[in-house]
C-alpha cells in the first residue's frame, strides 16, 4: 500500500517555534524572542481572547450562526455580497478552495519565486502544475506587470503577493489591472493580501466591482494576531461566488475561530497598535541594522546578511529566532518579523553583533 506519486510535492517549512528552539539550546522559552513567522507580537486582540473563552462552551455545536455572522460582517466591511466571502481554515485553506474551484488536472498556476510556498503546494494537491515568474534581487524584487506577463503562458491562476513575502514589496492596483487585462479571460489573478493591513494602499478588492477575473486573499493570522485559530478568507467576484457551496469543506472555519474573528473585527485599537508598531519597527531596522534591507510594506523586513543559515544559527544562540530565507531560494537573506520595540531592538543588536564578528 502506498500513497500516490508525491515525488513532486515538498513539505512546508515553517519558521522555528520557541518551544522547539528552547529545548534544543537549553533556554528558558521566556528568554527567547521569536521573529520568524510574521506573527503579531502583541498576541490576539483581548476582545478575541474573551470571545474564544466565552465560546468554549459551544464547542460541541457545529458553527452555523457564527459562520454566517462573520461572513455577513466581512461582506459589509468590503462592500460585497456575503456569497463573495469564502471563509476558510486560514488563508491557506482559502487557497485550497480556489484550487478546487479552478483547476482541472494538469492545469497550471503561475507563482512568484522567491515566494510563498503554499500556492504551488495547493496546486499540486489538486493535480495541477506549477510554473514560476522570477523576482530579481538586483532589481530590488520589483513587482511589475512586466515581471509577471513576460513569464505568463496561459496559466489558469496567476498569484500576486502584495505586500510580497519575503521581500515586502507591493504591486500597484494599476499593475494588477494590467495583468488581469493582458491575461486570458480564463485566467484568475489572485492577489494575496495576507499583509494588507500593514500597507498604506487600497485593497484590490475594489477591482471586483467591475471584474470577474480577480480574487483577493485575506487572513486573521497577521495583523489580527489569530494565526493559531486558523482563519482566513478569499473575496471572489459575484459571478462565480456560488462555487463555494460546491467546493468547501463543511463548516470551513471553526466555531471558536469565527467567534474570535468577529470580536477581533470590533477591536480597531489592537489592529492600529499592531500596524503602527510594525511601521516603527521597519524604520528602526532600515536605520539601525548593519546590513542591506529592502523597503517593506508588511510586518517584516528582508535583510542581506551573507550566509543566512550560519547567521540565523548564531543569532539563535543569542536567543533571537529569525527566518533563514534559504528555503525561499535566498540563501544570503534573513527575514526579520517586526516585534515590539524591545524585541526589535534586541534582534537588531544581536544581529549586528553576529555580523561584526
Ligand atoms: C501568512 C501568509 C498567508 C496566510 O497564512 P494563514 O495563516 O494560512 O492565513 C498567505 N500568504 C502569505 C504570503 C503569507 O505570508
From TrEMBL:
Residues 31-350 form the Aminotransferase class I/classII large domain. Its cofactor is pyridoxal 5'-phosphate. The modification N6-(pyridoxal phosphate)lysine is found at residue 222. It comes from the Archaea. GO terms for molecular function: histidinol-phosphate transaminase activity; pyridoxal phosphate binding. InterPro entries: Aminotrans_II_pyridoxalP_BS, Aminotransferase_I/II_large, HisP_aminotrans, PyrdxlP-dep_Trfase, PyrdxlP-dep_Trfase_major, PyrdxlP-dep_Trfase_small. It catalyses: L-histidinol phosphate + 2-oxoglutarate = 3-(imidazol-4-yl)-2-oxopropyl phosphate + L-glutamate. This is Histidinol-phosphate aminotransferase. It comes from Haladaptatus litoreus. The lineage of its organism: Archaea, Methanobacteriati, Methanobacteriota, Stenosarchaea group, Halobacteria.
Amino acid at each position: 500500500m502506498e500513497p500516490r506519486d508525491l515525488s513532486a510535492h515538498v513539505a512546508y517549512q515553517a519558521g522555528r517555534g520557541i518551544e522547539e528552539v528552547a529545548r534544543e539550546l537549553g533556554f528558558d522559552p521566556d528568554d527567547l524572542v521569536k521573529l520568524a513567522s510574521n506573527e503579531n507580537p502583541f498576541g490576539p486582540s483581548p476582545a478575541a481572547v474573551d470571545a474564544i473563552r466565552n465560546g468554549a462552551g459551544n464547542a460541541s455545536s457545529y458553527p452555523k450562526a457564527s459562520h454566517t455572522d462573520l461572513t455577513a460582517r466581512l461582506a459589509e466591511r468590503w462592500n460585497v455580497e456575503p456569497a463573495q466571502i469564502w471563509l476558510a481554515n486560514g488563508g491557506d485553506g482559502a487557497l485550497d478552495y480556489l484550487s478546487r474551484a479552478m483547476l482541472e488536472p494538469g492545469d497550471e498556476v503561475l507563482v512568484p519565486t522567491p515566494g510563498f510556498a503554499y500556492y504551488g503546494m495547493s496546486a499540486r494537491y489538486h493535480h495541477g502544475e506549477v510554473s514560476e515568474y522570477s523576482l530579481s534581487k538586483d532589481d530590488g524584487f520589483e513587482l511589475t506587470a512586466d515581471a509577471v506577463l513576460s513569464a505568463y503562458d496561459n496559466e489558469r491562476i496567476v498569484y500576486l503577493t502584495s505586500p510580497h513575502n519575503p521581500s515586502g514589496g507591493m504591486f500597484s492596483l494599476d499593475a494588477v489591472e494590467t495583468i488581469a487585462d493582458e491575461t486570458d479571460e480564463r485566467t484568475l489573478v489572485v492577489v494575496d493580501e495576507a499583509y494588507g493591513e500593514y500597507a498604506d494602499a487600497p485593497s484590490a478588492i475594489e477591482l471586483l466591482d467591475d471584474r470577474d477575473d480577480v480574487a483577493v486573499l485575506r487572513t486573521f493570522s497577521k495583523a489580527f494576531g489569530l494565526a493559531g485559530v486558523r482563519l482566513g478568507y478569499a473575496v471572489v467576484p459575484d459571478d462565480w461566488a456560488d462555487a463555494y457551496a460546491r467546493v468547501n469543506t463543511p463548516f470551513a472555519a471553526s466555531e471558536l475561530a469565527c467567534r474570535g474573528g468577529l470580536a477581533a473585527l470590533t477591536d480597531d485599537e489592537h489592529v492600529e497598535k499592531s500596524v503602527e508598531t510594525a511601521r516603527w519597527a521597519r524604520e528602526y531596522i532600515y536605520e539601525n541594522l548593519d546590513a542591506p534591507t529592502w523597503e517593506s510594506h508588511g510586518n517584516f523586513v528582508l535583510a542581506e546578511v551573507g550566509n543566512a543559515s550560519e547567521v540565523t544559527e548564531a543569532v539563535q544562540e543569542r536567543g533571537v529566532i529569525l527566518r533563514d530565507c534559504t528555503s525561499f531560494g535566498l540563501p544570503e537573506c534573513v527575514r526579520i518579523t517586526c516585534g515590539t520595540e524591545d524585541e526589535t531592538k534586541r534582534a537588531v543588536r544581536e544581529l549586528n553583533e553576529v555580523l561584526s564578528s
